[in-house]
Specification:
mainly beta; four-stranded antiparallel β-sheet; Methylamine Dehydrogenase, Chain H; single chain; about 350 residues; about 5% helix
């Protein structure tokens, strides 16, 4: 366990004035002890991702493409990545081929690497419909792969719902019609910065598939957690509000140690001073609060360790708040980022 590191990605994407420019990039520290090191400082970073089978490899999605470490995050360098200034928001390593890696960008784009992230090529444009015009370009926020059909990948789009490929990213299908239908229900309407009340249901943040229920896909959106069992043709409200007073779904993760166990980050809104991590041990049927902390910002990310089920971390947005448990949630430690960081978008460990 002492080998494990915690990583945090920090960006200044939302609502900060130039006078309020703080540190951005990627920070790293040893899980049990240690201080944060600022390992990428030149670019905002929206996501950091530890390779699931080789923790020496760590990916950072920055506002200038993919950065990659091969020494457990000590040093990063820009990968051989084709496009300058492309924001990268998500990564996925193929379950069967550890050298095959996908990256999701903004404006919506998917890239693929076949050499563990050293070189990348852009895949064909997914051609998703523009269902909602936001003040920022639509983003590929998270990807999840079907456990027994490796070419089938679902992606959550902010703000664009869900898309699906069955051919490893060569072509994509929009899976959002049923989300838009749900948005006609009064309690699932939400319009903040666009011209449509479909906005809340299309505000996709994370997506997950568990090997315990491989045909079920769960997406975390502004209005809660929603599930499909038919490839995105229909979506059902998981009604997480039965268990949590807050339902803004920012993250959903499957435990690598136990596929029946899911973690979800639920907060009040995109900009809020509260939130919690909930855990389900029955594939999402019921949820219980997992963390024992009080955050002062929206919880953006929850990170179960890929090898040690007792380690889980969470990151809250505004004040560089990161908390972790090393004992399965019994006790929590506060490991705040250095003062002057901006918005924490992602936490990872491994």
């Amino acid at each position: 366990m002492s080998q494990s590191n915690v990583y945090a990605s920090v960006a200044g994407t939302v609502g900060r004035s130039d006078k309020d420019k703080g540190a951005v990039g990627v920070f790293r520290r040893a899980a049990e002890t240690g201080t944060w090191e600022h390992v990428i400082s030149d670019y905002d970073s929206n996501t950091v991702y530890v390779h699931p089978t080789d923790p020496n490899i760590v990916f950072a999605g920055t506002h200038d493409g993919v950065y990659r470490s091969t020494d457990r995050g000590k040093t990063f360098k820009r990968a051989n990545f084709p496009d300058k200034g492309m924001q990268i928001w998500s990564f996925l390593v193929d379950a069967g081929d550890p050298k095959l890696v996908y990256a999701g960008g903004s404006p919506v784009a998917v890239y693929r690497s076949e050499d563990s992230g050293e070189t990348w090529k852009k895949l064909p444009d997914p051609n998703m419909p523009t269902r909602c015009v936001m003040p920022f370009a639509c983003r590929v926020m998270r990807m999840a792969q079907h456990p027994s059909k490796p070419g089938t990948i679902f992606a959550a789009l902010e703000v664009g719902g869900v898309m699906r490929t069955t051919d490893g990213g060569e072509s994509w299908k929009d899976c959002s019609d049923a989300l838009v239908r749900l948005a006609q229900q009064p309690h699932l309407k939400s319009k903040i910065v666009s011209d449509t009340s479909d906005e809340g249901m299309l505000d996709g943040h994370a997506i997950a598939i568990s090997a315990a229920d491989p045909d079920a896909v769960i997406v975390a959106v502004r209005m809660g957690l929603f599930r499909t069992a038919d490839g995105g043709e229909s979506w059902q409200d998981m009604e997480v509000g039965r268990f949590s007073p807050t339902t803004y779904g920012r993250d959903i993760q499957v435990s690598r140690a136990d596929p029946n166990t899911l973690y979800s980050a639920l907060s009040v809104a995109a900009a809020s001073k509260d939130g919690a991590v909930y855990r389900s041990q029955d594939k999402g049927k019921t949820w219980q609060r997992f963390d024992k902390v009080q955050v002062h910002g929206t919880i953006m990310s929850v990170a179960p360790h890929q090898a040690d089920p007792k380690q889980v971390y969470l990151a809250a947005r505004y004040d560089g708040e990161i908390f972790g448990t090393l004992d399965g949630g019994n006790t929590w430690q506060f490991i705040p980022l250095p003062q002057g960081v901006k918005d924490v978008y992602s936490v990872a460990c491994g």
